[in-house]
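Aim 2, interim progress. The first record below pairs a target sequence with its structure tokens.
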Amino acid sequence: MEQTVLWSKSLSSVPEMTLSRPFHNSTHIFTHLSSYKGILPRASYSSTSPNEIRQHDVLDSYSQHRINSRLFRVLDAFDDEYEGVVVNPDTLPSNPNVFASTLRSSIYNWKIKGKKGVWLKVPLEKCDLVPVAVKEGFEYHHAEKSYIMMTYWIPDGPSLLPSNASHHVGVGAFVINHNDEVLVVQEKHCTPDLHGLWKIPTGFILESEEIYTGAVREVKEETGIDTEFVEVVAFRHCKNVAFEKSDLFFVCMLRPLSTEIVVDDLEIQAAKWMSLGEFVKQPLIQGDIMFKKIIEICIARLGKRYCGLSVHQLVSKFDSKLSSLYFNIVEDDHSDCQAT
């Protein structure tokens, strides 16, 4: 859906303006456009069909004289909370030529309104619009399977829009039963130097997934074992891991709730319960400083000589959203660890 803007033909008194880039996807309709610094005439918006809109005169709020009006179409969009604009991807024109003219009018409109950033989400089925947006000054922000997100910064100076996600987030699950046996797996696809290694289940956190639920899910998917999250015992940060992205890896301790292993044939070669002593003695564990230190931390936690971070659900007034805060208090009566 496009909105129709009534604009003056008579703009001879308006100084030349340099257009910037558009903002976010939008679903709401602008209700009015006020004068820009007392120079431009008012413009009104309508969400009705162009065939239903009647030409009418628009009154300049400063000169107070009648002027002929022209119809301009703008993209359906809503304001974000950062003085930006989000374009509604569901109502984007399919025709690149229509999109080009409408996008130019929209940028002009947003600039007059003092908007800053524009977010343009282009669905895969309308990918022909991407070159048009690039030509108008939009930049790539990120891409997913079904869309490309593009941005445009309107004010002069560097863009203040947030960059694309900078990190991948992974989890590793240290699961040990009452027999001091560790749940371990061998992956089907691994680098040659890790061939034959029995390791703890690992994987990436899904979009909008919690760390603790992701660890439980990975164990279930790879081994069929049901578990309960206990704590985050450590995390690793590494730069430039893949495609210049950094990596956050959270080592979690989980408590097993079942015993029967069901291997995921797609990713896992084998899985089993291995004695803690045998697990630790593996040459690849002993020969790697990182692996060895992680296991030492987990063993210290089992001996109550180390405290990890348990998860606590809290709501902040800043965003009114339920969040997970990971922390631990040794003096807590419910804690089974002690400070060293």
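The second target in this work package is listed in the same format:
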Amino acid sequence: MSRPELTGHASLFYNAKEARKYDSSSRMVGIQREITERAIELLKLPPNRSSFILDVGCGSGLSGQVLEEHGHVWVGCDVSRDMLNMANERIERKREEAMGDADGSSDDSDNDMNDDDDDEDSNNNNNTHNREEPSPGDLLHHDMGTGLPFRPATFDACISISALQWLCYSNTKEQIPKKRLTRFFSSLYQVLRRGARAVLQFYPETSEHAILISECAAKVGFAGGIVVDYPNSTKAKKHYLVLSFERSYKAPQGLTGLEGALLKGNNGEGSRSGVRVADKDPRKAAAAGKKSRGPPKKKKGGGKTKEWILHKKETQRKKGKDTRKDTKYTGRKRPMRF
């Protein structure tokens, strides 16, 4: 199956049919919930306090629903109007349910307190206040590649689920990935309050895409790193770009305990400030790949080299088979028999 980013603009791919299919898929709903929960964990928001969070590429509002369950207020923007229609239906449905509950509580309170006019007035005032309470989510039709149209220092945090990689592709001559990424990160830097963090989950097609995203984030002043969960798994592998204003901030480790490729600064020396990425120069990475292309070969006499054994064990692990751990004795040459 080809990547949806290669089929054209996101607003054309996520049409009414695809949006309905996306929102009704139990598998997709489960994946989105899991990724959003992980993003909230990486944000490290203050406990027992509601935060104002920006959801970039909110889609049908699946991630916003998780934010609401955690007690946060959110604003979502997306380039697909059909996906926003699905999110708006969810918000309106929840608002109607809240209004129905408020009307039911109003009837009960009126029946129980007919004898006390003062209590009745106070209950009516409380019910009116409940009816006027705004929804915890709001929507905006907007292309994030053109910059975020919000006032400076508006949001306490930002999340993005499976949307950032779309900026690495161009559908017209005017769409230059590097310029669109720089414009997005520059506006994100402005709309976040100082001390806020952003967690952007994305699916890079190549390592060059991850490097491009990282360089653009570092160029505008962000610090942080890429957290890779389940790096040895093909399906469960997830990339999270964690950004912060703190110059000494270091990205946390992935769920397997292996920290993903850290981001490097613009000077390429891995300084503490700025976003860092390993193997920043694609030409060096390509040259290294040419030297060790393909699996290691066996010895001519039929023996097995240490590199061949390690490669074989790694292949077995990726297939999910039980494999012994690597030790200092792995591939060690045994002494000759008497």
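DSSP finds ten helices and seven strands in the chain. This observation will shape the mutagenesis plan for the next reporting period.
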